[in-house]
Amino acid sequence: MALMTSARLGGVLFLILCIAYGVYAGDITLDYWSEQEMFNARSMPYLIAIAGIFCAILLIVIPTPKTDWSTALNLNWLPAGLLLVLMSAYGFLLEPLGFVIATILFLVTAFLVLGVQSVRAPLLVAATIAMGFWLLMDKLGIYLAPGVLPEQLFQYLGVAG
C-alpha cells in the first residue's frame, strides 16, 4: 500500500471538493428556454468539476518527490495577496460603480500592483478591454448594469431619465 503523502492527502481533499462542486452545480436554476441547450449556466461548473476531479486523481495516483518548500517561501507573496484583496474589492464595487468603471479601476490597480510603472498604458488597456467587453455583451443582449453611482450622476446631470 502506498504511503499517504501530503500531495495524496491534498488530492483526496481536492477530489472531495470537486465532487461536491459538481453535485451542487446541478442545483443551478435554468431558464425554461435554456434547459435543452447544449451550453447553459451549468456547463462551465460541470467542466470545472470534471477537470478538478481529473487533476485530483492525478495527484493521488502519480508519485511525487519530496517537496522543497524553501523556494515557495522565498517568493514575493505580497502582490498575490494584494491581487486577492483587489479581486474581492472588485466584487464589492461592481454594483455601486457599474461594470465599466469597476473593471477599469480593477485592471489599472492590478497593473500597478504587478509592477507597471506608468499609469497611461494600463489606463488605455483597461479602458479598451472594459469598453470592448461591455460592447460585446451589449451586442449579445447581455445586460451589464451601469451601477448606482453613475445612474445617479446621469440623473443629476439630466442625461438619463
UniProtKB/TrEMBL annotation:
Membrane-spanning parts: 44-62, 74-93, 99-116, 123-145
Q: Where is the DUF1468 domain?
A: 9-139
Tell me the keywords, alphabetical order: Membrane, Transmembrane, Transmembrane helix
Query: InterPro entries, from UniProt?
Result: DUF1468
Name of the featured protein:
Tripartite tricarboxylate transporter TctB family protein
